[in-house]
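Here is one chain, start to finish.
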Amino acid sequence: MMFARFTIAYWCLLIAAILPIVCAVIAKSGMWSVPRRQGGYDNNNPRAWLAGQTDWRARANSAQANTFESLPFFFAAVIIAHQLQAHQARLDILAFAFVVLRMAYIMMYIADMALTRSILWALALLVNVAILFVGYR
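Its structure:
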């Protein structure tokens, strides 16, 4: 009997899928106990509430949206690389690098460090392209 193993790259898919949720929690943090009439979090209309936020909360929400947008390409690249039987250590390192870059990207987005954020975004995109082609022969 053969058992499939969950590679580091697959664990990175799980972590990447959780990152947008982390961004949402950051955007909403500290506002759950504030009454709605005083600007607290509105769970009845969360998207409108988030759209009305400013400063770091608005940036955390934008980071959430961008992080969701990055998921399909990352998921596809990792799955394709596995199907092409990419060298596992290289794939794992690249997937881990992607997740670390995206985490740093989120931190820079929230901290309003636009140039650094954009550089990290571009690096993560390049790593994702490398993941896609790591199994190419």
